[in-house]
Automatic annotation (TrEMBL):
Residue span, Purine catabolism PurC-like domain: 17-122
CdaR GGDEF-like domain sequence ranges: 161-268
Protein name: PucR family transcriptional regulator ligand-binding domain-containing protein
Family recorded in the similarity comment: Belongs to the CdaR family.
Lineage of the organism: Bacteria, Bacillati, Bacillota, Clostridia, Eubacteriales
Source organism, top-level taxon: Bacteria
Length: 389
């Protein structure tokens, strides 16, 4: 819910005669600060989301303008405002094309506009919006941590969200995120927000509990997934050294249910990190949805041990492969031929093993109910192996 290019245009179009020339797809870019610049030196210190303003004094040639735009795009600037009429009268077409191609908003204000007043105006608005965003984030965190205490968050969020509507949480993380210092993490946050296109006033983005959190309100799941995929694509291209992972929680109704979507997004993010996947949707994780939501890992270990202990002891004593055979047997829904093919073992040998396995377990493994505990045990084992990798 940051102060965006769109927000700026709502007042600047009339107050400062501002015109939008190119980079329309960057309309929702948020602004972290406003800088007046006449050369590209200061751009090296940009964190991301800075709005650049220039009179054009330091950019006499078309090539200079192109270099300026390239540097701004490379350092994740939110846009460029040109003060036309004194040092530049006509914006190069090549510059417009580049800004369109890279979703970098390009705007103009006439020379008569006092840039100091305009920059002060925008800076105050950025500061006020940042303060509001912090209050919103605090209220959303309260909704996650204490969902039953609605007095701690519902009233504070009422003017910004449809608190009775749908909510969905998206988490973004990467290796070492929690170990970063505050400045490094803030820079990464700004860059990621630039990649989350078209999210403005129906979402909130903040850092919490080792992840970047995006809380979306009244947004379709299809749009949220497209948003995440686009952000991952841009992040991979522009931050090759950072491997982002995304977990998407279930959609829920009413702000009081936000904690459910958050916990499920947390589980999905964990799965994404463990499986080395860029994006995992909790609702598409099958039985893992249940297992990853279990807080008591001890009970999971108990279930695995109870189901597989006897076979493991038999394998240890007789140098057999009964555990592996059972796993393949369940995987292939009892097909002896498929198990034999996967394990490169003769069909008769598999038949013999399965017969012994049934005796050891005292279970015929015929019905879904008879097989389910062992299938769950192997799911748990897979989870444990992922944690050790």
């Amino acid at each position: 819910m940051s102060f965006t290019i769109e927000d700026m245009m709502l007042t600047a179009e009339n107050r400062y005669a501002m015109k939008f020339l190119a980079g329309q797809n960057g309309w929702a870019n948020s602004i972290s600060w406003v800088h007046l610049l006449e050369d590209t030196t200061i751009i090296q210190n940009f964190w991301g989301k800075e709005l650049a303003v220039t009179t054009g004094l330091g950019f006499p040639d078309k090539e200079d303008w192109m270099q300026l735009a390239i540097q701004l795009n490379r350092h994740h600037a939110s846009g460029l405002i040109i003060n036309v009429g004194q040092y530049i009268h006509e914006v190069p077409e090549e510059l417009k094309m580049y800004c369109d191609e890279n979703d970098l908003p390009l705007l103009t204000v006439p020379w008569e506009v006092h840039l100091s007043d305009m920059i002060k105006d925008f800076s105050i608005r950025v500061f006020l919006q940042d303060s509001t965003d912090e209050q919103i984030a605090s209220a959303l965190i309260a909704a996650i941590e204490s969902p039953d205490n609605q007095e701690a968050y519902r009233k504070d969020l009422l003017q910004y969200f449809d608190v009775d509507g749908s909510f969905q949480v998206l988490l973004l993380t990467c290796e070492g995120l929690d170990a970063m210092d505050t400045v490094e993490r803030r820079k990464l946050s700004y860059r990621i927000q630039m990649y989350l296109e078209d999210i403005t006033h129906n979402a909130s983005f903040f850092y919490y509990n080792s992840d970047f959190v995006l809380v979306a309100n009244a947004i379709t799941e299809e749009f949220l997934c497209q948003l995440a995929e686009g952000a991952l694509k841009r992040g991979k291209k522009r931050m090759p050294g950072v491997e982002l992972c995304v977990g998407i929680g279930s959609k829920c109704m009413d702000i009081s249910q936000l904690s459910i979507s958050y916990q499920r997004a947390k589980a999905a993010t964990y799965m994404a990190m463990r499986h080395k996947k860029q994006l995992v949707k909790f609702d598409e994780c099958g039985l893992y949805r249940l297992l990853y939501m279990v807080k008591d890992e001890g009970i999971l270990n108990e279930i695995e041990t109870e189901c597989l202990k006897e076979l493991e002891e038999y394998d240890y004593k007789h140098n057999a492969e009964y555990v592996e055979t059972l796993q393949s047997y369940l995987k292939h829904n009892g097909s002896i031929q498929a198990v034999a093919a996967e394990l490169y073992t003769h069909r008769n040998t598999i038949l013999y093993r399965i017969g012994n396995i049934k005796k050891i377990l005292n279970n015929e493994l015929k019905t879904p109910d008879e097989r389910l505990p062992y299938q769950i045990a192997f799911y748990i084992r897979s989870m444990q192996e992922e944690k050790q990798d």
